Amino acid sequence: MNSSVYILLILFLTVLTFVTNQEASSNDNPKRKKQDFYCSACKSMSDTIIREMNNVDPNERVQVGSYRVDGQGHQKLKDVPITETRYHAENVLENLCTKFTDNNPDVIPRQLKNIYEHACDDILEEHHDTLIDLLGTQNKNIQTARRLAEFFCMETNQYCKADQLDELFKPPPPPPPTPIEEKKEEEEEEEEEQKDEL
């Protein structure tokens, strides 16, 4: 009798452990999907930010500094490239989420546009000041979307892992050849074969 109770108890604990593991694994899946959306949104934000940051005349300069006048009637101002100013970074981040969802219809499926925009809004709301400071102070170190994504999305905020960024920045595969291109390739191969035979 005791052995049958013992066996039932072990069986019950095994089933309970199995069910608990299944629930835990099914709960990880939505978290993983959310992380994938946030990583993808952060990468797309990086692309849009760099494109917008570079969308100005590189020779355009502005004066920054104190507009106070000292005792001799001088101001402490210096000329800097506009891309290194907080003002320019603020302009780039204004309506960023709408820009990247509207300007990337081939990257962001229409059905997922709201999810990406929500993820972008969350990221921007939480890290707006950090991003402004990063764009203003680290501008020379962050010249590419890849570097911005590595620094902001992976190192600073852990939205992405290295393998996720590698996958997102992988160049798209070349499009399949059209029937006309295939025919040209076949003709070229036939010509080469004929030359080889001679």
- Cα-atom radius of gyration: 28 Å
Number of DSSP strand runs: 2
In percent, how helical is the residue content?
A: 55-70%
- Beta fraction of the residues? 5-15%
Structural class: mainly alpha
| Spans of at least 5 consecutive residues with low confidence | 23-28
Side by side, the strands of the main sheet go 1-2
Report the principal-axis shape. Answer: flat
How far the N terminus sits from the C terminus, by CA atoms, comes to: 92 Å
The quaternary state of the protein chains shown equals: single chain
Word description of this protein:
The structure is a single chain. By secondary structure, the protein is mainly alpha-helical. The protein is 66% helix and 8% strand. It contains seven helices and two strands. The chain has helices at residues 2-53, 86-93, 96-102, 113-137, 145-156, 162-168, 179-197; strands at 61-69, 75-81. A two-stranded antiparallel sheet has the order 1-2. A hairpin with a 5-residue loop joins strand 1 (61-69) and strand 2 (75-81). Helix 1 crosses helix 3 and helix 1 crosses helix 4. The longest helix has 52 residues, at 2-53. The radius of gyration is 28 Å and the shape is flat. The chain starts with a helix and ends with a helix.
